[in-house]
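Quick question, first post here. What does this chain look like in 3D?
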Amino acid sequence: MSAILKELYGKLDADAKISEVNFEASEVVLYTKSKEFFRTGEDKIRELVKDLKKRVEIRPDLSICLPPDETKEIILREVPEEAGVKDIYFEPELGKVIIEAQKPGLVIGKGGETFRKIRNESLWLPKIERAPAIKSDIVRAIRSLLHTELAYRKKFLNNIGQRINTPREYDKRKDWVRISTLGAFREVGRSCMLVQTEYAKIMLDCGVDVGGTFPYINIPELDLEDLDAICLSHAHIDHCAYIPYLYENGYKGPLYCTPPTRDLMVLLCLDYVDVAQKDGKEVPYSKKAIEKAVKHTITLDYGEVSDIAPSIRLTFQPAGHILGSSLVHLHIGDGLHNILYTGDYKYGPTKLFDPAYTDFQRVETVITEATYGSAMSIMPPRREVESRFFEIIDRTMARGGKLLIPSFAVGRAQELIAMLGQRKDFPYPVYVEGMVWDATAIHTAYPEYLSSRLQREIFHYGNNPFIHPMFKHVEPRERDGIIDSTDPAVVIATSGMLIGGPAVEYLKGLAPNPKNTLMFVGYQAEGTPGRRIQKGWKELVGHGPDGRTKVTKIEMEVETLSGMSGHSDRNQLIAFIKNLSCRPEKVLINHGEQSRCLELARDIKRYLKIDTHVPKNLEAVRLK
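> Answer (accepted):
Ran it through. Tokens below.
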């Protein structure tokens, strides 16, 4: 038992009847055989742990819990029917009863009253999960996997806690902080870096470039067995898709992210493997590796402070980019240094999210993206963007056409759906095919991660734009019927750059008809079919069902809707740094084409008088 656990255990009276004391990563968990202590011990624990600076949770020893059948009766009696309880199951190893409901707030009750009644009568600790408003196989599979791996998880989390809290001999003369740049420096894609101190090694993101290149993980200072933790900012392929590879090749430590980031990571990594196999490319890892990553994931909510390594504390804050996306704040040492890694962020309001968070107490070094870092990268006002979006739709619908929107599965598609879903008088069907639907289902499981405006609509007024009846989930067998129909409609489908996926099949069927419109809402990389069509190409070369080359004439209208990006434009990038509650000493630039990185660094230094640096990949930068 560690010194912290011994100290806490020693402060408790014998009446507490503590049967087990464990770590769960940075938290401490006490199991008690005392019914009274389980019901009323929270105040006493609060007093005891002031000096420990640790979260402590009291759980019941299984010996005092009511039988599951009786507990279910209590839950169904106390929880109102309108809460929409979908499932009740038990985790005896942890003393928990899981209640999955459509409206978790009604399970908690006013002021937590219902929660306390269930806990105090059943002597199980309730854990309440939201049932997605749209059925999600991914959410269900992840929750099922974590449930079946309880014994492993309990041991794993305790080991992590022991490692974090192992006493170290600190010598302030040896205090230093540096980062190694492993990907996405002076480029976009394969984001990855290693933060090192005398006592710990933390990886930030680990993604794959769309061209198939991977981060530089074979560097001398990186040994996967010595890596303390991985922190994932958000679940886009260029930030997360190489993480399972690490687990398949020796890494056994924790992966920290928000709950929706974990779920979206699984969705996108599974698709990444499927697409690679379908295209005959070498797959860097198996689907089992994705399961390993899930088993080792520790989820944190926004604002939750957690020790993740000796002398390093992690906090996630909203980044405004996609669901669950986070600004990663690392507090190193006893006030030694504070790093803010932005990942991808949006410092401006959208339909889905509030602007990125800026109220940090201390930040010495900021590592910021520069995707739109050039002076020419200024996006139009949001109202203009939305107005033009509906103008294009209405024009297409009025002439009896169909609007095809190729979209990335996560982020952009849900922004469009939220915009359409809030236009309650829209009389046309919106067909959704591909991974877009699965990603949208995950969004319905985490409305608390959406904008304050959307939360108000969903929680207080019952208006959830994602489940509006205009949205129709399409199976591949239904695609031809939609294409052949003469009725106006909107189609949202993957992939966003027309490299593959159902959007390409819709394009083949809709392109020859001038009544139809193709609308790009996202970045089209050089060399992709989407970029070629944007440049004015009027023919799409593909293959028919017989394998022969087929040329499709593009007679449909082609539009590009600028300003829909989930990234900050150049003005927002500078404003974010300027509006941080504390003034950083240094800004490092990454995640942008070289010219954009250099231009943003120059302007931050010119206008804000802050030291800037634009590292290349494989540089080591000392921060302290």
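The mean pLDDT is 92.
The longest helix spans residues 259-278.
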